Amino acid sequence: MNLQPSCHDVISGKWTPSAADVAGGRSAGFGVTTLIINGGVECGKGTTTPQEASRKGFFDRYCGLFGIEQGSNLDCANMSPF
């Protein structure tokens, strides 16, 4: 069984994807935090849902306001649940 990490561990870089995570399309980045928060509604659909696009839009905006890089793996469209 693959345990779901906390958003804090993902954001702070304390989470390292396991082989099962990689096989499920899960890698560190904003997309996996979306999977943790609301994965059943927004993730694993093969395309970006309107809900995920909205969440990512807020993330884009705040990264810009704070002048920080967004990093990679920003969506969860192809991530399977934990």
Automatic annotation (TrEMBL):
SUPFAM superfamilies: Lysozyme-like (SSF53955). Transmembrane segments: none annotated. It holds the Pfam family Glyco_hydro_19. Keywords: Disulfide bond, Plant defense. Gene3D superfamilies: 1.10.530.10. Residues 4-76 form the Glycoside hydrolase family 19 catalytic domain. GO terms for molecular function: chitinase activity. One of its GO terms (biological process) is defense response. This is Glycoside hydrolase family 19 catalytic domain-containing protein. It comes from Chara braunii (Braun's stonewort).
